Hints:
The chain is α/β, with parallel strands linked by helices and 430 residues long. Helix content is 25%, strand content 24%. The chain has helices at residues 2-13, 29-53, 130-141, 160-173, 275-290, 319-326, 378-390, 395-399, 410-413, and strands at 62-67, 70-74, 80-84, 88-90, 94-96, 108-109, 123-126, 146-149, 176-178, 181-189, 193-200, 208-214, 216-219, 223-225, 261-263, 304-306, 312-316, 331-337, 354-362, 365-374. The strands form 6 sheets. It has a 5-stranded parallel sheet, with helices on one face. A hairpin with a 7-residue loop joins strand 11 and strand 12. The longest helix has 25 residues, at 29-53. The model has no long low-confidence stretch (mean pLDDT 96).
Amino acid sequence: MHQAALVGHQIKSAPHLGWNISGEVRHDWSALIGNVTSHVKSLNWGYRVQLKDKSVDYINAFGSFVDSHTVAAVDKKRNRREITADHFVIAVGGRPVYPDIEGAELGISSDDIFTLPTAPGRTLVIGASYVALECAGFLTGLGYDTSVMVRSICLRGFDQDMASLISEHMERDGTRFIRNSVPLKLERQGDLQIRVTWQVAEGDSAPSQHSEVFNTVLFATGRRVSTQSLGLEPLGVQLHPRSGKIMGSAQTPEQTAVPHISAIGDVLDGSPELTPVAIAAGKLLARRLYQGSSEQMDYKMVPTTVFTPIEYGCVGLSEEDAISEHGNDNVEVFHAYYTPLEFTITELDSKSCYIKLVCVKEGAEHRVIGFHFLGPNAGEVTQGFAASLRLGITYEQLSNCIGIHPTSAEEVVKLNITKRSGVDPTVSGC
Length: 430
């Protein structure tokens, strides 16, 4: 979906590169959804085949614990069977959360948008998480009138300089932000419209109410893990009182209070909610259980990318967290605004292309503890630098690397202006 939106931007930029695109260029929602659905089905079928090839039984059923060594599995036909095992690994993930408001059932979740049979039309995305901004970004890019309702801040938990630049870029790209607002109710209007009423907090003034009509309302207000019906607490497995996530031990995070029951992925308290993290943790757990390994999963320095219209890749601490952990005087931030080469002739918006290295002072050197990159192909760029951060690279070592010209990643090794200096960090020719 994100790639489809990027292609739309490229089509608009094509004339600057000599491409003569005549006639109206329109996007076909049904064709996109059909191809995405077919691809997902092929992936799922491939996983089923691979499991069979590796002699793994796939049981499509709802499971819950009968006792600490027995799980009852009930399939969609209500057939029940009991399965016993020496070890259990819980990786049930989570499900989208809907707000407790009138008419919430009229909305859809971020899961549903990928199989929506008809074009979403005028869309309201409620939430400001990375999922919310990604969905709003690609819907705008595909040509749909899209608004984002934000209760407080965008991308909570991420570096807030980067979050602000992302939302500013999205606004310039055509996405509308309805800030300091919470939905109150949804009402069906006709067959294809939903009236949304919301409340705006306006400083010291009394909250005011507003309403508008949309074709689609998408809730991206978080997910809740599916642990309540598993029968875990009677066994002694501890669940977080607010999130319901499984709590592991300090030494072995995946290990629950019941020695032979482990948890990986989104269901585990303290684990980043990222598929590659769950896969890596699962591999290490299997090696500890069956190969005598003692290697533990390292949940620090985990890279990720937010696929908003201007992509954001990061690994390590945000500037805010670094200052909180090390103190303002011990943190140095090197930064730059830059223009990717592919944004020049095409006149694409580069105002939010920004790089930040968050460093902690260690004697005469600066160890890099946070990497933040806004720009094209952010995931590709971040993946490479993530390895160096895990190995403890310093700013001085990074600066001694030779850049590959002309790339956006080159700007990382050219950083030389600190935020503390107050000097304009915009990259110039000299």
